[in-house]
Amino acid sequence: MIEDVVRQIVLLLVHGEFEKLENMKMLGPSTREEYALALQNYLRGREVLCEPPPEAFSQLEVDKTRDAKRWRVDFDLWTDRGRSDLTAQIYVEEVSPGVGHGVLYDLRVL
Fold first, then answer.
1. Contact criterion met (CB below 8 Å) for 104 and 32
2. Is the peptide bond before 29 cis (omega within 30 degrees of 0)?
3. What residues does the DUF7668 domain cover (predicted)?
4. How far apart are alpha carbons 62 and 4 in whole angstroms?
5. Across residues 83-108, what is the average pLDDT?
6. What does the alpha-carbon distance between residue 74 and residue 96 come to, in Å, rounded to a whole number?
7. What gap in Å lies between CA 45 and CA 28, rounded to an integer?
8. pTM score, two decimals?
9. Cβ neighbourhood burial of 66 (10 Å; 0-12, 13-18, 19+)
10. For the chain, how big is the Rg over CA atoms in Å?
11. 48 to 10, 45, 56: CA distances (angstroms)
């Protein structure tokens, strides 16, 4: 469940689908414009976000939160130069057994 939610958010992010992320209530606390600007400022026209290799999704580092049905994942994004230091902080919550919903919470350099 967590892997699927993270994959969905990351792929939408890579393809610049900020409106879709917003419509699916997968953005917070920043706006789609703020996330797009943060990404643009990081890439500065020198790099392009790319889909990560499939194995990146099966090697997630998942952190528990105070809520037993909520987890945090810091996922390293990939560019045409390889794995970057730009990280998507994603929260995943189990909304019903086996069904999760994720939110892109932050983009940060780690």
1. no
2. yes
3. 12-98
4. 13
5. 96
6. 23
7. 25
8. 0.94
9. exposed
10. 13
11. 14, 7, 18
- Side chain identity, residue 57: F
Query: Which domains does the chain show, CATH number per domain?
Result: 2-109 (3.10.450)
Whether the CB-CB separation of 110 and 74 falls below 8 Å is answered with yes
pLDDT tens track for 45-81: 899 999 999 999 999 999 999 999 999 999 999 999 9
* Residues 56, 80: Cα–Cα separation, whole Å: 15
**Contact partners, residue 28, CB within 8 Å, separation at least 6:** 103, 104, 105
Distance CA 94, CA 92 (A): 7
